[in-house]
Amino acid sequence: MGAALARAAQWTAAGSGPGTLEITPLNESLLNQIIKFAEGFSTRHPQEAAFVFREPLEWKTQLNCSVFGEGYDVNGATVQSEAKGKDGQPLLLLTASTLRVQSFDQLCCLLQIAMEKKLKEAQACLEANRDPIVKILGPEYGTVEGEDMSMLHLLDKVKKDDDPETEVKMKIFLLLRQLDLQLLNSSLKHISQDVRLNPAAIDNEVNLLKNFSGKGEGTVLESLEYTSDYMFSNGCRAPPWRQVHGEICYLVIKPHDTDPLYITCSTAGVFLNGGQLKGKDDIDYERKSDVYKDIVTFLRERSPRFLENMAKQEYRFFKEPTHENNYQRMEIVESKVSGQSQDLYNITEKNVCEKMKSSAARRRSMDKKKLEMSMKWRSMGLAASHRPKYFSDKATKKDIEEEGRSSTVSLKTKKKASGISSGSVKIQPASRCKTSGRFEDTSESSSEPEEDEEQPVHHQERSTDLPSEYWGIQKLAKYLKGGNPTATVIALCLMRDFNLAQETCQLAIKDLGCLEVLINLLDTEEIKCQIGSLKILKEISQNILIRHAIADLGGLQIMVKILDSPDKDLKCLAAETIANVARFKLARRTVRQHGGIKRLVGLLEGISVGSTSPTPYQANDTEIARCGALALWSCSKSTKNKEAIRKAGGIPLLARWLKCSHASILTPVVGTLQECASEPSYRLAIRTEGMIENLVKNLSSEHEELQMHCASAIFKCAEDKETRDLVRQHGGLQPLSVLLGNSENKQLLAAVTGAIWKCAISGENVSKFREYKTVEALVGLLTDQPEEVLVNIVGALGECCQEPINRSIIRKCGGIPPLVKYLTGTDQALLVNVTKAVGACATEPENMMIIDRLDGVRLLWSLLKNPNPDVQASAAWAICPCIENAKDAGEMVRSFVGGLELIVNLLKSNNKEVLASVCAAITNIAKDEENLAVITDHGVVPLLSKLANTNNDKLRRHLAEAISHCCKWGSNRVTFGETKAVAPLVRYLKSNDPSVHRATAQALYELSEDPNNCITMHENGVVKLLLAMVGSTDETLQEAAAGCIANIRRLALATEKAKYG
């Protein structure tokens, strides 16, 4: 820990004072790891936690005396712990605001008391104790530069001396060394990704942004100013008392479309502060937002207008210094090869390729993408004079006018320019190359399908013998690039005659430069050219390479604008093409950031919903809605887009179209809903808007894809009990059971079994499934299925085992052997479900015999070693009925080598569900006297005692039961008293859970057999609580409460008799 604080943590210092930890993500991560280590130290290492530090850790605390409760003596402004060292000094002492702590036990308790202030306390402690190991173990263990010999000295001392304290010191030193390495590794990862800012970098960025700011329409900001003109010698403008926190300066930024933004620039990044304090010449320095890597990234998230205008300035803002030289060199080539623009194009392509190859050798893939974009801009600059006039690229307008060519093209454009001869046009570079999305945070939904992780776009190797289609498209490319409007339309029509679904044709269009032309055509006012271009783009955008290319060339932004067109065919084609392109994160983000979600939702506002015989106008209305729903379906794979659809009013519109009878629109509508159903707000809306009835109705559709999406939507929504009831009430359980017969379609089967699994959580639904012979069908599907389907089938069987008759059905249908077989799998979700199903089956003695014969209990026990806490907990729960129903359970458990030690060690887990399940298993193990003796030797009593201070009722109940059964061996009940497990148990009686009361009363009854425990119980007010429970209707609780009171009373009488004779 000392090495990590010295080398990895980021410290600042003002003047000659002591250093302070900067408020940075790296320091916050290190502090959180140290807190996690300290909080779990007492549970994992109880002996070492009791070790008294050589010197106390001392710091100024923000905690008040009032927060200290049980275990501490509070006297005015002084607090001291009841726990004391050998010298009688308290292990925790608070006087005024100075806190002194002398053991890990007290550190752990302090962090629990501090709650939300634990980060501040840890920071203050480490700032005051720069090398805490010296305070904990002594100066000989301090952090040193160069070769550290402390470990060797310690080993020598352990060999020479049998002092147990030296051994404890060695363990603590090793644990702290391990933490040190962990912190250093963690910091290395942070630092490798971190770009720290400095005053010069911020000043450069501010000056650059000022060049693009002002009152004009095309400016990115209205104004940007420092809050202070005074600059210190180190380049910072922040006052010294803020510089110690790593802050450099403060800015007031006025975007065109939002209120003024007050931001802090620090070494860790840029973030929003609280702004100017009212009536004071100062600002609120508190951080109010996430930390961004620079000012531009911050503004992209805060101002849509900045994002839009920045995209227009992208080339100028991010241009490379070598641009001028390259540009001049290429102009020389152009002058030498006058009139041969195709040669120029080849030279440009060659240079771009060479640049990209050298770039790939130097940089990572993201740098390569940025370089590739700038190369495309250069290519655009070179070929500006060869662009037909009807391509509306602002950047090339001036160059075209300067050429002063006499020939004209008759096609109308949005921006007029001087014409050029169509015969001279041999090349059409991209006119749209907006790269704003490249520079943003790429975070999207974590649950997106694998296609979101499309592989980087690599050019596939071409055969030397190109097919005839390639040469045919090459001929058309000439007319497409340089022809008049009529020739362009004809070329588009002829291009559509090719098989555009064929990859050869798709890549020929891309490689021959036609893709840029097609995208440019979208930005004209000629409807026929736009429609022809979109029809081709819609077909070829099925290709991954082309999808990425369209996004890189700015095609999505233009298509989003087309959604506002009055022409319905144009809107439909644009929406369908967006649906194809928006299959990866960058594309989906681009659609959202340019207002595409709101426009797509607007396409759903039709009037033909529910029409039995729609007019041609209404049919057209339905087609527009279908295309809009397709695009929303693709976009809805992003969490942010789901929220955008909801805010745009998409839910009621989707609900309206769900009542339609046309499968063509129902499929994308239900597809969108099932994607969005992963969000709680959508699940609530689907239930309250009455959509469950229509989803159930469409389960009986003739279209398998529609059935699959309906089942998938029910699968996600049936997490809620109200939805499960609605599915049953609308008759949805029977069609789900019928669909199990279609076992060939694995995607449909996965959705259906998932829906059955979630619906079976409700007991009423399980009864219905029994009527429909669903359990038999599920058992029949247990073999030869993909894991995705198996997880759902086994989960459904586990829920159906709520009814005893279903457990018998599984056995009679031969379902137990395949279930036991799957215990050897590796899929974590499947293991969680299969352990639950096997455990449920084991509650029947006949089933248990089969499980035991198949060695199922040993397999369950081996899953306790699985690193996944969910698997551990599920396996431990399953072991409980196995022990209860096995014929010779004690011998069976002892036959597992190391099994008892393994389950006892799981009591050191931090997962509450694991702890509860292990306590339940120990309760069953302890029913056998020999096994109880073994687990006692493995230290089960102190480990159970450590868990006593919990507020989790589930853990309380099973912990109390385990303590109750463990008291029946040797001096265990005495040990429980010595390890302070009795007083916390008394508090369990204040719980609202009757099952906790029953288990606790039984445990207290067993513990009350020891006189010292009776005294502890009486001091903690147990008698009053138990008296109320003596009148309970639960006989077990009655007897245990009465027995405990009787034992306490007997002790009191015996004491009185001894005292007074």
From TrEMBL:
SMART domains cross-referenced by the UniProt entry: ARM
Stated name of the protein: Armadillo repeat containing 4
Transmembrane segments: none
Xref: PROSITE patterns: ARM_REPEAT
ARM repeats: 554-596, 898-940
Region Disordered, residue ranges: 395-465
A Pfam family of this chain: Arm
Biased composition (Basic and acidic residues): 395-405, 455-464
